[in-house]
Amino acid sequence: MKKFIAAVAIAALGLVGFAATAQAAPSGKVQVGVLSCEVDPGFGFLVGSDKGVTCWFKPNHGGKSEQYQGSIKKLGIDVGFTSHEKLVWLVFAATKDAWQKHALAGNYVGASHEVTIGLGLGGNWLIGGSHQSFALQPWSIQGQVGLNWSLTWTALSLN
Fold first, then answer.
1. Contact 137, 23 (CB under 8 A)
2. What distance in Å separates the CA atoms of residue 154 and residue 72, rounded to the nearest whole number?
3. Long-range contacts formed by 95-103: CB under 8 A, 24+ apart
4. What are the backbone dihedrals phi and psi of residue 124, each rounded to the nearest 5 degrees, phi first?
5. With contact defined as beta carbons under 8 Å apart, do 79 and 149 qualify?
6. Which one, out of 17, 31, 71, 109, has a CA that is 20 to 30 A from the CA of 103?
7. Residue 97 Cα distances to 33, 62, 131, 134, angstroms
8. 88 near 16, Cβ under 8 Å?
9. Residue 105 in 3-state DSSP?
10. What per-residue confidence (pLDDT) applies to 7?
């Protein structure tokens, strides 16, 4: 099972790497790092779900990684169960030196879609954050293990 979970994580990270080369940075922004989130296991309850997340920001140019706690809430069609789920975003700022401690704390909103039959993939198109100083790449690739299908409005909150 651990090898299966590792394969999901590797597939998600590989897809994010591929997508990063295919999409340009937001206008006037520089990539400053990567935000990776692990989502708590749980059920989708037909009209939505609410799961905890633990995230880590890893700066591009060294420096100490930061941890965030929060939640991801979905409203829409969300049916099934996921036991392991990983989300990854590229993080952008106005300059490469603009980073301040816990600058990613805030709220992000958008849409999500995922399909899981054993091993699954999904995408999250989210924008927002605190003080409009930093931007998450508007979409992420995710990998998960379970049996689930969802098409939802999504809110991510990071503390």
1. yes
2. 7
3. 95/30, 96/30, 96/32, 96/60, 96/61, 98/32, 98/133, 98/134, 99/32, 99/33, 99/59, 99/63, 101/66, 102/66, 102/68, 103/130, 103/131, 103/133, 103/134
4. -130, 125
5. yes
6. 17
7. 12, 12, 16, 12
8. yes
9. coil
10. 40
User: What's the chain's length in residues?
Assistant: 159
- What letter would DSSP give residue 137? -
Distance (Å, whole) CA 84 – CA 142: 10
Are the C-beta atoms of residues 136 and 54 closer than 8 Å to each other?
no
Tokens encoding 8: 């999901």
3-state helix, strand, coil in the chain (%, to 5): 15, 65, 25
Q: First and final CA of the chain: distance in angstroms?
A: 31
pTM, rounded to two decimals: 0.77
